[in-house]
Amino acid sequence: MAVEHASLGSHRTLKLAAVEAAPVFLNKAATTEKVCSLIREAGEVGADVIGFPEAFIPGYPGWSEVLPMSTEPAASLFVKLFEEAVEIPGPELQAIQEACKAANIYAVVGINERRPNTTGTLYNTQLIISRDGTLLHKHQKYVPTVSERIIHAPGNTGSKASARTDFGCLSSLICGENGNPLAQYSLSLDYPTVHVASWPSHFCPGQELRHAIQVASCGFANSLCCFVINSVAVVADDAIEAYGINQELREYLQNEKTKRRATIIGPGGFTAAGPLEQPAEGILYADVNFKNIIMSKYIIDYAGHYNRPELFAHHFKKYDNFTEL
């Protein structure tokens, strides 16, 4: 799709949508249908961008955070995840593209991606889809986090994690990589207007997801002077049934089920919307204005007047002869 350069006048407003919902656990057909329904719902109220949680189709492998991976049911759950993972291209992508076109909306959708016609290897992937249904970009998570490394391979889609749209640059990152300084700087060079940060439904006991989201996304919005859509998954009963193998774990997952963490953050780190009222899942909306971005860049532009990249270039000389680490 040929995209005109956006007019960044301070009069321009956008309606942003952050999904906080549960997938139909390990069921890609039903979860894809839910994704399309949420896209249409956001389109009906005039939303311009909708963001979805991490690995939403067919669900984040949350059992990897709480179960020994060499035992049951973890092994069987991985087999089911692989069977229900999404191939690109494929019918799931086509359905989402058609929904975006009908709703006249940009979408960033998290999937578990498998390589077509193979029997192994999954990626933690985000798809950026345009208003006319075009797949603008596919971003695979640079480095799987902690136990995800048993589930997902390191991404091979390179450094790029953004696409041009009719309102400027739309970027996206997955969970922990939203705090990656090199990823932030790389995206800053594209001057994102809106960024989608995709998150799972829980970490492991003792780690608070809300704190991680708040710290990473406010820092990102402040440094890049853009709006951040925090899209967060919800623990549902089907996931608890699948890997809540004892009372202690079930109680932990039930408690996580009640939490709502989706937010929309503005330049400087202010909260434009959220979180949703408990215990409902759904879509969080915010109407935002480009003026906030331009005023913030007046003070700080790490891709331009407020940086000295040549002073730090020596840190990367040791990688000059390598194409990958």
Concise overview:
Keywords: Acyltransferase, Transferase. This protein has 325 residues and is α/β, with parallel strands linked by helices. Helices cover 30% and strands 23% of the residues.
Uncertain spans: 1-10
From the 3D structure, determine the CATH topology.
Nitrilase/N-carbamoyl-D-aminoacid amidohydrolase
In angstroms, what separates the terminal alpha carbons?
33 Å
Largest sheet: 12 strands, mixed
- Helices, by number, come to 9
What fraction of the residues are assigned to beta strands by DSSP? 15-25%
Radius of gyration: 19 Å
Kindly name the structural category. alpha/beta
Per CATH, the architecture is 4-Layer Sandwich
Into which percent range does the helicity of residues fall?
25-40%
What overall form do the CA principal axes indicate? globular
Oligomeric grouping of the chains: single chain
When the domains are counted, the total is 1
CATH C-level name:
Alpha Beta
Order of helices and strands: EHEHHEEEHEEHEHEHHEEEH
Give the number of DSSP strands. Answer: 12
* CATH superfamily grouping: Carbon-nitrogen hydrolase
Mean residue pLDDT: 94
